Amino acid sequence: MTENLARRDFLKASAAFAGIAATSAFSCVEIASAAPIAVPTVDKLSIKVLVDSSFDQFFRPKQASGVAITPAPRGADFRKPLHSEWGLSLWLESEAAGSQRTLMLDYGYTPEVLINNMELVGVDPSKIDALIVSHGHYDHFGGLLGFLDKFRDKLPADVKLYAGGEDNFCHRVNATPTKGQFTDFGALDRRQLASQKVTTVLCETPTVIAGHAFTTGKITRRSIERVLPQTWVEFGIKDGLGCNIGHYLPAEMEGKIVPDEHIHEHATCFNVRDMGLVVISSCGHVGIVNSVKQAQEVSGIQKIHAIVGGFHLGPAPADYLKQVVTEIKALEPDVLIPMHCSGLNFVQEATAQMGDKVLVTTTGSRLTFGI
Q1: What is the DSSP string of 211-235?
Q2: 21: three-class secondary structure by DSSP
Q3: What SS3 class is residue 88?
Q4: Mind telling me which PROSITE patterns this protein's record contains (predicted)?
Q5: How far, in Å, CA of 94 to CA of 223, rounded?
């Protein structure tokens, strides 16, 4: 029954987007297949942290449970430092049976910081096989269009951007202390993606990317976790900008501004041979435990090698934080690697409960799995 309902929802989605794809704003849109995925296995995986919210000049190499972390190489020009800002961008390189793939996950807050750090970390845009955006917050897509302006000619002609779903393109706002007043927090402009000839793939269902990675698809809320106070979201399209509520929300939501539930945030995952799953949550608004359990369910793999990324627990109250860390610990990951919005309070609580399994990174550092 559940499978039939999922298939019916997918067909409804396909019909809805087939209708709007005829317009210029949606001329480069695909819907990911709803068929079950065959989860690929990689022999090695590395993550280079292009942008994170902090930088440690004195960061030292470390290694634990088959994971190595090394600092960024020292640049030849002391006048050109790595920059940190609120946001996240990760460069993912994997190897399987002699084949290499390169994916870029999220793009930080500004193209200036992203492009500066790409040069200093030493990554080559011409090696990119696919692009991924985790969710519709500006600190994760803000650098994307500037990145495309500079490097589009180096990317594959048919390059695709994998997004969790239509919700990624909604307009978002921040609430101000004055009731009923909002400040703009932007929207990812699909019209500009189309003008750059970038095809957007909406991955509400699990999707294999470049034959090496897979996404979770829409994440089921099944743990004690809740979406902590954050942005508000406006449903609807104005002059081609915004999101089509289509099949996933009732028509009366059109034009409403409501608290953000991050309906289509997704996680990016790898199955590392003999190690298990590496689950990368860029922000984890829908819950990091929910994200990991979704990865386990769609892959059929229970072993968790690493949980990586932003967990959005900085604003969490102490009692709730303790509960979430307890649930993370029960997942028995080999390592836990918090970044970006996870919060110092999370790092302290996680270290108290999980000890040396908690590894901290910095902007420019490189993580290697399957060493």
Answers
A1: TTEEE--SPP--SS--PPS--EEE-
A2: coil
A3: coil
A4: PROKAR_LIPOPROTEIN (PS51257), TAT (PS51318)
A5: 31
Q: How many CA atoms lie within 13 A of 354 on its CB side?
A: 27
Q: How far apart are CA 364 and CA 71, in angstroms?
A: 6
Supply the DSSP string of 119-156, one letter for each residue: HHHT--GGG--EEEE-SS-HHHHTTHHHHHHHHGGGS-
Gap between the Cα atoms of 159 and 134, Å rounded: 17
pLDDT value of position 27:
52
Strand partners of residue 366: 48, 70
3-class state of residue 20 by DSSP = helix
Q: Rounded CA gap, 134 and 145, in Å? A: 15
H or E stretch at 201: strand 199-202
Q: Are 346 and 313 in contact (CB under 8 A)?
A: yes
Q: Which residues of the chain have pLDDT under 70?
A: 1-27, 177-180, 371
d(CA 56, CA 66): 23
The two tokens of residue 291 are 């994200």
Alpha helices in the chain (DSSP H): 2-20, 111-121, 138-141, 144-151, 190-195, 288-299, 318-330, 344-354
User: Which residues, listed in sequence order, are joined to residue 11 by a DSSP beta bridge?
Assistant: none
| 231 residue type, one letter | T
- Domain residues of the chain, as ranges? 2-369
Amino acid at 327: E
Handedness of CA 138, 140, 141, 146 (dihedral sign): positive
SS (H, E, C) 249-286: CCHHHCCCEEECCCCCCCCEEEEECCCEEEEEECCCCC
Cα 52 from Cα 71, distance rounded (Å): 13
CATH number for the region 2-369 comes to 3.60.15.10
* pLDDT for the residue 152: 98
For the beta sheet containing 182-184, the strands, ordered from the edge strand earlier in sequence to the opposite edge, are 182-184, 171-175, 232-234, 257-259
pLDDT at site 36: 85
Give the three-class secondary structure for 170: coil
